[in-house]
Design a protein that fits this description.
Blueprint: E1 9-14, E2 17-22, H1 33-46, E3 54-59, H2 70-79, H3 87-103, E4 108-113, E5 116-118, H4 120-127, E6 130-134, E7 138-140, H5 154-161, H6 163-172, E8 176-177, H7 178-184, E9 189-191, H8 194-209, H9 213-224, H10 231-247, H11 249-259, H12 265-268
Parallel strand pairs: 2-3, 3-4, 4-6, 5-7, 6-9
Antiparallel strand pairs: 1-2, 7-8
C-alpha cells in the first residue's frame, strides 16, 4: 500500500524503517489537528505494509514535539455553539486516538527525542517501544500550568513510569532532562551528541531487522494485553499464537537457519 501525501510530515526510509519527521520547526513541531490526521493516515497505511518493520518518529529543526498547537484551541473556541458537537472534546479525543493507534502498531515504534518533548510529544514518547534521547532534551507535562489537564496523555504516562512518578510530573509541571528521562523510565538510552544519537538509531534498526516481523508483532500484542485480560485467557491465547508461529513460515525458517548456522531470510533481505 502506498503511503499518503503529507504537508506537515516528511516521510523517508532507512533500511527496514519508515522515518516520520514532524516538519513544523517554526512552532517546535507542535501537533496541529492536520498533523494528527496525517499521522493517523500514515499509521493506517504502514500497519499493513510488510516491508516496514519499524516506525521512527522524530522532529525537524532540533525539536521532537512541543505539544498541541494553540491555534487549534482558538479554532475550537470559535466553533463553540455552532452545532451540537463539542469541538474541544473532539480535538482532544482525536489526539487520544492517535496515541492508542501508535501504541498498537505491529511495527517497532522508535522515538528520537531532542529539544522540546512536551505535552503531546511526551505522550508519544510514552507509547514508543524504543526511546532514544539527547542529553539536552527537555521533557515536561506543562498542561496544568495552563489550566487544563493532560487528559489523553496522562494514562500513557502512568503506564510508562508508574502512578507515583507520573503524579509528581503532572501536578507540578516540572521540566527534566534527557538524562533524567532515562532515570524515570521514559527513555531507554541517552546520548551526548546528535551523531551518537544517529548511530544508535542505525544500530536499533539493524537489530529490528534481525527479528522476525510476525513474531515481533505477536510479542508486542501479547505484552500490551497484560493486565487487560485474565492470566489464563492471556496464556491460552499465547500458546495458540506460539503453535501457529512455530508451524508457520517464520518459525520453520528460524529453526532451519539456527540448525544451518546462518541468518534467517528476514535478516538477510535488503528492504526497499
Amino acid at each position: 500500500m502506498l503511503l499518503p501525501d503529507c504537508s506537515t510530515l516528511e516521510l523517508s526510509r532507512q533500511g527496514a524503517a519508515l522515518i516520520i519527521t514532524f516538519n513544523r520547526p517554526e512552532v517546535r513541531n507542535a501537533l496541529s489537528l492536520a498533523t494528527v490526521q496525517e499521522l493517523l493516515s500514515v499509521f493506517d497505511a504502514a500497519s499493513v505494509n510488510p516491508k516496514i518493520r519499524a516506525i521512527v518518529l522524530r522532529g525537524a529543526g532540533g525539536h521532537f514535539c512541543a505539544g498541541g498547537d494553540i491555534k487549534d484551541m482558538a479554532t475550537a473556541r470559535a466553533n463553540l455553539g455552532k452545532n451540537d458537537s463539542d469541538p474541544f472534546y473532539e480535538l482532544n479525543r482525536t489526539f487520544g486516538q492517535l496515541l492508542e493507534t501508535a501504541e498498537q502498531l505491529p511495527q517497532v515504534v522508535i522515538c528520537m527525542l531532542e529539544g522540546a518533548v512536551m505535552g503531546g510529544g511526551f505522550g508519544l514518547a510514552c507509547i514508543s517501544d524504543i526511546a532514544l534521547t539527547h542529553k539536552n532534551a527537555r521533557f515536561a507535562l506543562p498542561e496544568t500550568g495552563l489550566g487544563i489537564p493532560p487528559a489523553q496523555i496522562a494514562p500513557f504516562v502512568v503506564k510508562r513510569i508508574g502512578l507515583t512518578k507520573a503524579r509528581r510530573l503532572a501536578l507540578l509541571g516540572e521540566k527534566f532532562s534527557g538524562e533524567e528521562s532515562v532515570e524515570l523510565g521514559v527513555s531507554h538510552d541517552v546520548y551526548d551528541s546528535t551523531e551518537a544519537l544517529e548511530q544508535a538509531l542505525a544500530e536499533v534498526i539493524a537489530k529490528v531487522q534481525r527479528c522476525a516481523p510476525g513474531a515481533n508483532a505477536v510479542t508486542k500484542k501479547l505484552m500490551l494485553a497484560v493486565d487487560k485480560k485474565p492470566m489464563k485467557e492471556l496464556l491460552d491465547g499465547a500458546a495458540r499464537d506460539f503453535s501457529a508461529a512455530i508451524q508457520g513460515p517464520e518459525g520453520q525458517e528460524g529453526t532451519m537457519a539456527f540448525v544451518q548456522k546462518r541468518l534467517p531470510a528476514w535478516a538477510e533481505t535488503e528492504v526497499e
